[in-house]
Design brief:
seven-stranded antiparallel beta sheet
Length: 142
């Protein structure tokens, strides 16, 4: 199953543009250092962050209403953690496709993975102050 998911989504996720709707907004890509992200982590005295969505579980296109309900549930869950977070989105290069998400500052990897499994996501974007943004594939962690 992982090979199918990885094969189908690897290029899409790795070539996506991720945008954090902070002030000013931050654009970044997988595998590329981002001084702006490092600065945002520093602003919050954090060493990690994760970009997570609840949209389109298992990579299957879902209605806008269903996606918005899932995002609301995810936001409520994030708010219960009392961690700083920012609205964000992932998109293709020309931004003709967008998927809403949240960048959660200071979230530990275990909690992030649990959220991702709960919302049936294929992968998360993991940000660590010592590394470039990377993907963590959920099916490798079962």
């Amino acid at each position: 199953m992982l090979n199918k998911i990885y094969g189908e989504f690897e290029d899409l996720y790795k070539n996506a543009i991720y945008v954090v709707l902070s002030s000013p907004s931050i654009r970044f890509q997988i595998g590329k250092n981002s001084e702006e992200l490092a600065g945002l982590l520093g602003k919050h005295h954090a060493t990690t962050a994760a970009l997570i969505t609840a949209c389109n579980p298992k990579g299957i296109k879902t209605s806008e209403d269903a996606n918005q309900r899932q995002l609301t549930d995810l936001r409520v869950e994030i708010e219960s953690l009392n961690l700083p977070y920012y609205p964000a989105y992932g998109s293709n290069l020309d931004e003709s496709w967008k998927e809403e998400s949240y960048l959660v500052i200071g979230l530990d990897q275990t909690a992030c993975i649990a959220m991702s499994h709960k919302y049936e996501q294929n992968a998360i974007v993991w940000i660590d102050e010592r590394e470039t943004p990377s993907l963590i594939w959920m099916n490798t962690l079962n």
